[in-house]
Amino acid sequence: MNIIENFDLFAPRLVDKKEYFCSGHRACQGCGEALAIRLMCKALGPDTVIANGTGCMEVISSFYPTTAWDLPWIHLAFENAAAVGSGVEAGLKALRRKGRIPDRDVKVVAIAGDGGTMDIGIQSLSGAMERGHDMLYVCLDNEAYMNTGIQRSSGTPMGAATTTSPAGKVVPGKQEWKKNVAEIMVAHNVPYVATACHSYPLDFMNKVKKARKVKGPSYIHCLSVCPTGWRSASEETIKLGRLAVETGIFPLYEVEDGKYKITIEVDELRPVEDYLNRQGRFSHLAPDQIENIQDRVYQEYNKLMDKVNGLHSWSDLKYEWGLFE
Amino acid sequence: MKKKKWPETWQEINPGCMVFEPASARSYLTGSWKAQHPVWDDSKCIKCGICYIFCPEGCVSQDEKGFFRADLDYCKGCGICAHECWPGAIKMVEEG
Amino acid sequence: MAKRVGMEVGIAAAEAVGMCNIDMAAVYPITPQSHIAEHLSEIVADGRIDAEFVTVESEHTSISCVSGASATGARVYTATSSQGLLYMHEILPIVSAMRLPVVMANANRAISGPINIWNDHSDIMPQRDAGWIVFFADNGQEVVDMTIQSFKIAEDDDVMLPICLNMDGFQLTHTVELIEFPDQKEVNKFLPPRKPFATLHPDNPISMGTLGMPEIYAESRKSQDEALKNSKKTILKVWDEWEKMFGRSYKPVETYLAEDAEILLLTMGSMSETAEIAVDELRKKGLSVGLVKLRLWRPFPFEELKAAVKKAKLLIVTDRAVSFGGSGGPVFIEIKSALYHEKERPLVYNSIIGLGGRDVAVTDFIKLIEDAAKAGEKGIIRDYEFYGVRG
Predict the structure, then answer these.
(1) pLDDT tens-digit profile of B45-77?
(2) Among C34, C4, C35, C7, which residue's Cα sits nearest to residue C176?
(3) Residues of C numbered 216-255 whose beta carbons fall under 8 angstroms of chain A's beta carbons: which are they?
(4) Do C192 and C277 fall within a single domain?
(5) Which of C208, C230, C246 is the last residue of a domain?
(6) How far is B83 from chain C (nearest CA, A)?
(7) Are residue C173 and residue C225 in the same domain, yes or no?
(8) How many domains does chain A have?
(9) Same domain flag for C239 and C262
(10) Residues C162 and C196 in one domain
(11) CB contacts, 8 Å: A21 with chain B
(12) Residue ranges per domain, chain B?
């Protein structure tokens, strides 16, 4: 039975029961990314086409001769999820205009991991967003190249140990801060940009539904907990996502036409240790390194709050002649 | 479509390795992966649906009475449902 | 009655695409393909065809984009050259493995090292094993005809493979030639709208581009190889149909004065026409020479080639690309291997000519053939040569 369109009501059992990403997929136990996909598909509904980049989600869901997808799905290569998505969108647009396919809205959604979006895929993502295709791009960020064996990507947080940025005697884990692709998307004038996490399922699904309505590009960056790569307990997947938000490490916000809004309010940020000490990838960190991370987290959070409080929606801004005289 | 025997011959294989049957992954039963499985205590269950929404496999569903059960053919035993259940109605029990 | 016009071949290629009712094109500029992209964008902007024209940010994206569109059932087109084709290299085998009928024009240009924008075949040769159907056009008329034919061949249910149509960059794409454009109504009869085998649409959800485990990968590759070999039947059928409708004949291997020739020259691409003049001159001098023009590169036309060369004593294969450290140019390697088991086969020589846009004149062909003839007379086995290289 179909349900409630209004997700402001916190009633998970009333969500659409249809599974578009079925059981039998081969993700690890407790995989946050698989959960994120399952929730995303519920929010998108059946009139969707998925363009997937190579990564965990593609590999675990499409073992020939089976597929876990109950939606049309295409995978080509690693870095071109956005490019393939652009092509699908252009193809469907032309065919619909020429009357060769039924005249109804079909949303194209491109999904890829953090490596396939922020590193190797940044070119095709930037190109697709600049061209303004009517496409939603969801980055499923598990903070490393998990599928190939937990290697460091630009989405790996500072201090994390991965197989290519190990916690060694001289260099203790990744030394660089996490790349903020959501900000890059805002700079591309993408009308709807949001960060989300599977641990806040209704917030995530609301954002997906909102992005689906946008007639143009939209971007959602979803933090996905990976117990295998993060060396955390499989049952704590949801808890870790919550801690990432409550410590201010991954604030959940949305940017509509340049206006920032925090969607999950956190009254007082918890100390980052609460989040870091539950994961094996941070177990090597010394107290001064943790303090470094804490300081930087506060700084980034303040930067975000500055934007939330100070920036106006683009549609409100009007140029006045003689402004700079 | 004629049922093909796995593994297929080169003449039978779908062109481009396309898969025409959606959600056919259900033929692979991941339930054999688990080392523990969830057991619901219906007296504590408030039917909120949290276990249903947080299951990465999507194998938790409601029975006729409205209580939740995991499909053990697919449950991988990750323990998320038991960990998230607010009233503590779910316990993870070891296999075997 | 079809009209003959003088038109730059690159522009004519775009005009030919404009006649084919494409649904979508994605192009990224690279010399010498840019005129094709530019003119096609004008055709779309003027509303002469109803298509989505996507100006992408790289060639890798252009091939990915048209593949995504082709998967939805759209008729698609792209064009590139040299470095662009090499940038697409990662995706080319995927397009053919996924059986997507993409049509691509390649304006042959030398590949870098050192960077060179002029004509040779070194960009298409490394794509030999990508599983695409590969054609070579010799002149502007062929470019137009073969562009229209390519859509029909690629989209045929027995084929479903992408096609790369090669035209020499600058030598062909930037020359003005007399071209007879077929009548639009006739083209519409010849090329009906695409009826795709499988498409991406929620009404029938399928998954494309799945994971192939070792148990199934080899079967998938064999199935693709058989499909490519089999596509020759459809290619010949379509060429036959074209001849009946438009009067121009196309064959996988064309010959010129080769039936009784003792010495044969083999060329691909636009220099075939220059070679014909050289053959005429040499015939006047009394040398028994003929020309073999290879039009179909993949799937390789074994029967036609063997039949064309079997009576000759010497076959000079000209290559416009190098296979460093190998036994000769790529075409030479292919031909030698094709002829290895034949009882009746000529002695085969290899001359690598025209690299990086270096002009190959009629006198060059004459010298090349006469030198080879002298050695061939004595039955000398010759290593491949870089013709005309100083030093």
Answers:
(1) 998 889 999 999 999 999 999 999 999 999 999
(2) C7
(3) 216
(4) no
(5) C246
(6) 33
(7) yes
(8) 1
(9) no
(10) yes
(11) 58
(12) 31-94
Expressed as residue numbers, the domain containing C282 is 253-386
- Report the neighbours of B using a cutoff of 3 or more CB pairs below 8 angstroms: A, C
Count how many domains chain C has: 2
Question: Are B12 and C223 within 8 A, CB to CB?
Answer: no
When CB atoms are compared, the residue of B19, B49, B74 closest to A23 is: B74
Q: For residue A207, with 0-12 CB atoms within 10 Å meaning exposed, 13-18 middle and 19 or more buried, which class applies? A: buried
Q: Work out the burial of residue A205: count CB atoms within 10 Å of its CB; fewer than 13 is exposed, 13-18 middle, 19 or more buried.
A: buried
**Which residue of chain B comes nearest to A26, CA vs CA?**
B30
CATH T-level assignment (fold) for domain B31-94: Alpha-Beta Plaits (3.30.70)
Helix (H) or strand (E) holding C186: helix C184-190
Domain assignment of residue A33, given as a range = 14-312
Query: C287 and C175 in one domain?
Result: no
pTM attached to this predicted model: 0.94
Rounded Cα–Cα distance for residues A125 and A221 (Å): 13
**Upper half-sphere CA count for residue A276 (Cβ side, 13 Å):** 24
Decide if C391 is inside a domain.
no
Rounded Cα gap, residues C299 and C228, in angstroms: 6
C143 assigned to some structural domain? yes
Does residue A193 fall inside a structural domain? yes
- Indicate which of C24, C54, C60, C72 best probes the interface with A, i.e. most A CBs within 10 Å of its own CB: C72
Q: Tell me what pLDDT residue B7 has.
A: 87
Cβ of C68 within 8 Å of Cβ of A71? The answer is: no
Q: Which residue has the higher pLDDT, A311 or B81?
A: B81
Clarify whether residues C236 and C330 are in a common domain. no
Are C190 and C338 in a shared domain?
A: no
Whether pLDDT at A1 is above 50: no
Q: Would you list which residues of chain A are within 8 Å, Cβ to Cβ, of chain B?
A: 11-15, 17, 19, 21-32, 34-35, 38-39, 61-71, 201, 227, 233-239
β-pair partners for A110: A51, A137
The Cα A154–Cα A226 span in angstroms is 16
Average pLDDT, integer, range C88-103: 97
**C69 → closest Cβ in A65, A90, A97:** A90
Are the C-beta atoms of residues A81 and A50 closer than 8 Å to each other?
Answer: no
**Which pair of tokens denotes residue C20?**
């084919």
Please give the C-alpha separations between residue C198 and each of A210, A310, C68, C98, C388, in angstroms, as whole numbers: 31, 50, 13, 11, 51
Please tell me whether residue C63 adopts helix, strand or coil conformation: helix
Same domain, residue pair C217 and C273: no
Indicate the DSSP class of residue A115: I
- CATH code, domain with A156: 3.40.50.970
Of C24, C67, C202, nearest to A106 by CB-CB distance is: C202
